[in-house]
Specification:
Radius of gyration: 29 Å
Low-confidence stretches: 86-104, 169-183
Strand order of the largest sheet: 5-6-7-8-11-12-10-9
Order of helices and strands: EEHHHHEEHEEEEHEEHEE
CATH superfamily of the largest domain: Sortase
């Protein structure tokens, strides 16, 4: 079997691999002509790509652009720190005070002085406790206000994003990453055009009735970035819904894996485990998932609990199944999922069907995962 891996991605046919190989060589040549430790050089490469001076034929071009964006952010952060960094001043140590002159030996004067000292000490301690308690209360109020504002902002952001969706679904052709006439990318649906132009890491939109799940789906070169960044590429503890880095929304895989945090607030995939109850499934048996290239409705097949296993463990790992090399391999994966499923939906899939797998954390065991698998029906 030919090795069709390059640039951290796998390709299913020799033509796609050759296109990726040309991109890989082109990217290496671009890197060799610039100093990637200089912010100006990195921005220059990024701008040339966005202006169409550098063109690519495969997903490696998008990966390279993502790599440049992350490098620019890091270099800008380093530059800001070097500009504002200062050495802190060491405070002078208080000199020990000399002993106060002793009072007269008369007992009443000594007793009076000691009483005053103890009273003053207790008063200072009482005021200190009041100040500490006030600061703690203030801190709690600020903490709650901050996270309330954060959650409210998050809701507004995603609400505003959904307003950008144009329900007119006529596709618009883009020339991004096109070099040869025989190499084309699918057209972007008109309904997602504004969102895509706002952030080209967008690959789709997912919605499930009866839940809070109604979000853009993102993708970048790793599976870590969107664990704590939102659509606007700001730090956000909610993270984003994102597609596995090895999946390809432009040329859909047999199974596209989509991840999201299980937030206690119900955000992201916080409501996904509602499918643990068969009654909820029966009321909401379908998932709406559009890539930016085509709309899709998926019927739920399997709902199960699993976990992240060590590399050494020989066991079914749902998160490894993206493409099947044969009908037997596809059927084997379906049998494993069916055996794990919490209930029988009656929905089956055959080799050639397209699936999505939604995955989130499950707290019933260490490294637990709650998983919903669905088949594209239209």
């Amino acid at each position: 079997m030919l090795d069709l891996n390059i640039g951290g991605r796998s390709f299913r046919d020799i033509e796609s691999y050759k296109a990726a190989k040309r991109d890989f060589d082109n990217i290496e040549a671009i890197k060799s002509r610039h100093d990637l430790t200089k912010l100006e050089d990195v921005k220059k490469i990024r701008d040339n790509i966005e202006e169409g001076n550098y063109r690519f034929e495969s997903m490696l071009g998008d990966d390279f652009l993502d790599e440049l964006e992350e490098l620019i952010a890091q270099l800008e952060e380093d530059k800001a720190l070097s500009r504002t960094g200062r050495k802190g001043f060491k405070p002078f140590k208080n000199k020990e005070t000399k002993n106060e002159p002793k009072f007269s030996d008369e007992k009443d004067e000594k007793l009076d002085a000691e009483i005053k000292r103890q009273v003053k000490k207790r008063e200072i301690k009482r005021k200190a406790m009041i100040v500490i308690a006030s600061l703690v209360s203030l801190g709690c109020i600020v903490y709650l206000a901050f996270y309330y504002t954060l959650y409210a902002k998050n809701d507004v952001q995603y609400s505003n994003l959904s307003d950008l969706i144009d329900e007119e679904s006529t596709p618009k052709e883009y020339s991004v990453n096109i070099v040869h006439e025989d190499t084309t990318m699918p057209p972007v649906l008109k309904k997602y055009e504004k969102l895509y132009q706002k952030n080209k890491k967008l690959v789709g939109w997912i919605k499930i009735d009866g839940t809070n799940i109604d979000y853009p789906v993102m993708q970048t070169v790793n599976n870590e970035y969107y664990l704590d960044h939102n659509y606007d590429q700001e730090y956000d503890k909610n993270g984003s819904i994102f597609m596995d880095k090895d999946c390809d929304a432009a040329h859909p895989n047999d199974n596209m894996i989509i991840y999201g945090h299980h937030m206690k607030s119900g955000k992201m995939f916080g409501n996904l485990n509602m499918y643990a109850k068969e009654s909820f499934y029966k009321e909401h048996p379908s998932i709406s998932f559009d890539t930016i290239y085509e709309e899709g409705t998926y019927d739920i097949m399997y709902v199960f609990r699993s976990k992240i296993y060590s590399e050494e463990e020989i066991v079914f790992k749902y998160y490894k199944f993206i493409d099947a090399t044969s009908e037997n391999e596809f059927d084997s994966n379906m049998e494993e999922m069916a055996a794990l499923s919490l209930y029988d939906t009656g929905i089956k899939a055959k080799y050639g069907d397209r699936l999505i797998t939604l995955s989130t954390c499950d707290y019933e065991e260490a490294n637990g995962r709650f998983v919903v698998v669905a088949k594209k029906v239209k």
